[in-house]
Design goal:
Length: 155
Amino acid sequence: MSRQQLPASVRRASRTLHAAALLAVAGAAAVVVDESVGRGLAQRLREAYPHRSADQIDMAQSSILTYLFTLAVLGAVLFAAMAWANLRGRRWVRGVGTTALVLGSVLAVYNFSQPHPLVMTVAGAVPCAVGLAAIALMWTRESSTYFASRQSASA
C-alpha cells in the first residue's frame, strides 16, 4: 500500500509521532540550555536538601541529568520506531504505543513531584502529550480498519 493510499488518520499519527520524537530531542536540548544558562537544577536541589553536602548535590544532579537524558533518548527512538511501524501497518504498534505512553506519562507526572526546574519537567511532559494525540489517531475506526486489513493481507 502506497503512502497516498494510507488512511488519513494513519498518516497524521505518523506525522504526530515524528513530532513527538523531535520534541523529545528538544526536551533534552532544553535541559542542556537550562543547565548552561541558569544552573537551575543544582539550585533547586540545594533548596530542597539544604543539609546535603556539595558532593551529594553534585552526585544527585549528575544522576538526575542522566535519568532525564536517558528518558529523552528512549522517547525519541521509541516515537520514531512507532512512526515507522505505524506506516507499515504493524498491529503491535498500537498496544506497544499505548503501554509506552502510559509508562512515559507516569514518569512525567512523577517528575512534577521532584525538585526539578519547571522547564525541565514540562519539556519532558510535552512529548507525552503529543504522543497521546498520535495514539488516539491510531485507535480511530479508520486506523483500526487499516490495521485489520493489513493483518488479513499478511495471513
